Amino acid sequence: MQINDIKIEVLEFDVPSLNINDERRVMGGRITAGALRLLTDVGIEGNAHIGDRGGGGEAMIGAVWNTFSERVIGMNIADREKLWHQLPAINPQESSIHALWSYIDVAMWDAAGKAAGMPIHEMLGAARRKIEVYATYPPLNSTVNGYVAEAAEVAARGFRAYKIHPAAQCRPRMSSAWSQQCAEKSATK
Question: How far is 21 from 52, CA to CA, in rounded Å?
Fold first, then answer.
């Protein structure tokens, strides 16, 4: 099954704005994202979403298109690893090349799963039929107490796991001692 066309549908929509504690300051507002479509010679289409709530979708869409649109035409949908190994030659100075490739990778996996008639997790050897979800927030805090309060709120909502996104000013301080302090304060809540 070969890729015979690539399209990116540009989507614009409004997301409620949220003040966050990192270099962006605000997340949300008017967002541009993309729906990546890899069309194959057998009529199966692989899809992936480009962009996120933090913005920057226009740049990502352009970069994916400029980097991969001509390269993937004619590729076998199963050649995900072949493309992965070409990344250093495609753009040796660009560390974000892997992030751009990830959209193509997801769309190729999507097409492979559709062709096989099974979900991707089964193709990868799933051992479970259910997984627990976790809660996450964009960076809203800059102190241990802020993250502890957030964790308590998440736990009160019934989540057993919580992924934090520390603000830029917290990252240098995020030592094992800092993590231990968070864990100890959370355990007492």
Answer: 17
